[in-house]
Specification:
The structure is a single chain. This protein is of the alpha/beta class. 48% of the residues lie in helices and 11% in strands. The protein contains 19 helices and ten strands. The strands form two sheets. An eight-stranded mixed β-barrel has the order 3-4-5-6-7-8-9-10, surrounded by six helices. The chain has a two-stranded antiparallel sheet with strand order 1-2. The longest helix is centred in the C-terminal third of the chain and has 23 residues, at 325-347. The protein is globular and about 75 Å long. The chain starts with a helix and ends with a helix.
Length: 474
């Protein structure tokens, strides 16, 4: 177990190699779906144009749903820990597709499902949920049957389509639920005729992004009148203020960009504990002697206790108890000590519960950037890139500008260049990882090409980073 933890800290866990998809997947014989490979990331040709005759010339070209990376957004529970991830493609693509023809909508769902399957999503579902949006028209799609049942929540949107043939749709959803999937509903819950679907669903999503508080509370009250004790998910939460309002309402889960939102901070969160950690990080960067580092640990009993507890934990695998700081530093080594201290910044001192979710986001960001550089940067630069990814969220953690953060800590010049100016050798890897959080398809496409990765590789690396962060955060 200890070797696994060390491998995780080092970032040396083997990544799954990108695999070629099964191009003979069910549905390929359809004339519409036969064109899917032109827009799916597993295809070599992206030049085809998809036209829909159903809505009078409305069409979507290969540039509208291009080769795509699956993006993620964390879904937090009431303890403000990551309970799962909502997976989708670029938001601007989502909006255009949902307003387009039924054929294009089904194509979009197939692109998303194929990408998720190629990520081998079952690896993500230890203690986490995977929220996957699907249209009613895709509820019989054969690719759904290839998804893992345990932990997968099918989030049905465009709910008005359910009511066009409610008996058939209800039967399809019931069959999926009986097969082990969990069902969520997202959209116009207040439509007449939704009662049976609401009773079947296990999650009900409420978009709070464009609503005021009275509207939100009215929607919650109306839902509670129809069904009792359904887990409610607040979505599109953009700021911490919005989150704190939602946390006082009967929501069970929270989704949005609020975890990494940059606010107008007034008071930095630089307590004595974090100052001590930053001092240690600087000493390590300056190649201080072990005796000097040991002395600094001994001046902070709480920090000494944490490192000894970490190494003497039941899962460490060590047969001999570590009794001294000198021994602890020798076992960990400089590189692992630096990473351990960097992560400790998120969980030490005067923080709040959201810091754990922020740390997991930083871990995913750092690991994804590091993996994307696995074939293009040497090991020492990949290690610096990992640290750059972790530090890219320290401004949010410490409530101060990045420029002020970097005045407290000595980092390599390439790391500072990427963090302050988004330029230099490390910048495209870090920016690609950030784009996967921001649903920014155009930047994902451009940055992937810049560093020589195809979309399938980025998807696999993304899944690997999510798994790695979950294991380290357990």
């Amino acid at each position: 177990m200890f070797n696994r933890i060390i491998k995780l800290l080092k970032g040396k866990t083997a990544s799954s190699a990108p695999t070629e998809p099964d191009v003979s997947a069910t549905g390929a014989e359809s004339p519409e779906f036969s064109q899917l490979n032109a827009i799916a990331p597993v295809s070599a040709n992206g030049a085809n144009t998809l036209a829909s005759a159903e809505n009078g010339g409305d069409f979507i070209s290969a540039n509208t749903i291009p080769p795509s990376v699956v993006c993620r957004e964390a879904v937090l529970n009431q303890t403000q820990k990551v309970a799962g991830y909502f997976f989708t493609l670029s938001r601007n693509i989502n909006e255009r597709v949902r307003a387009s023809s039924a054929i294009v909508q089904r194509l979009y769902d197939e692109v998303l499902l194929r990408n998720i399957l190629n990520m081998d999503i079952q690896r993500l579902l230890g203690h986490r949920l995977a929220f996957i949006p699907v249209l009613p028209s895709s509820l019989e799609h054969p690719l759904l049957q290839q998804l893992p049942r345990q932990g997968t929540v099918l989030v049905v949107n465009s709910l008005e389509q359910l009511l066009n043939d409610s008996e058939v749709m209800l039967a399809r959803l019931t069959a999926l639920k009986n097969a082990g999937f969990r069902i969520g509903l997202q959209g116009s819950i207040d439509l007449p005729g939704m009662q049976a679907f609401m009773e079947l669903a296990e999650f009900i999503f409420i978009d709070i992004g464009s609503s005021d508080l009275p509207t939100i509370t009215t929607r919650i009250a109306n839902i509670n009148k129809q069904v009792f004790d359904k887990p409610l998910v607040a979505t599109n939460i953009r700021t911490l203020d919005e989150f704190h309002v939602c946390a006082r309402l009967p929501f069970v889960y929270f989704q949005g960009q609020f975890v990494t939102s940059r606010e107008a901070w007034t008071t930095p969160r630089m307590d004595a504990g974090r100052i001590k950690i930053l001092d240690l990080l600087n000493r390590i960067r300056q190649d201080a002697e072990n005796a000097e580092l040991v002395q600094l640990f001994k001046q902070d009993p709480a920090l000494s206790f944490k490192i000894l507890r970490y190494l003497n934990s039941a899962g460490s695998g060590l047969t001999t108890k570590v009794n001294s700081i000198d021994q602890a530093l020798l076992i960990l080594g400089r590189q692992n000590l630096y990473r351990w201290l960097t992560l400790l910044l998120f969980t030490s001192g005067a923080g709040d519960e959201l810091d754990w979710a922020l740390m997991e986001n930083a871990l995913v960001r750092a690991r994804l950037a590091e993996l994307c550089a696995s074939d293009s940067l040497p090991a020492n630069e990949r290690d610096e890139l990992f640290v750059t990814g972790i530090f890219s969220l320290l401004d949010i953690l410490l409530h101060m500008t990045m420029q002020r953060v970097l005045q407290q800590i000595s980092l390599p010049a390439l790391a500072e260049e990427a963090l302050l100016h988004q330029t230099g050798k490390y910048a495209p890897y870090l920016q690609l990882a950030i784009a996967c959080e921001a649903f920014d398809h155009e930047r994902i496409t451009a940055l992937s090409a810049q560093i020589g990765l195809d979309m399938a590789q980025v998807n696999v690396y993304h899944a690997d980073a999510l798994i790695w962060a979950e294991q380290l955060n357990e």
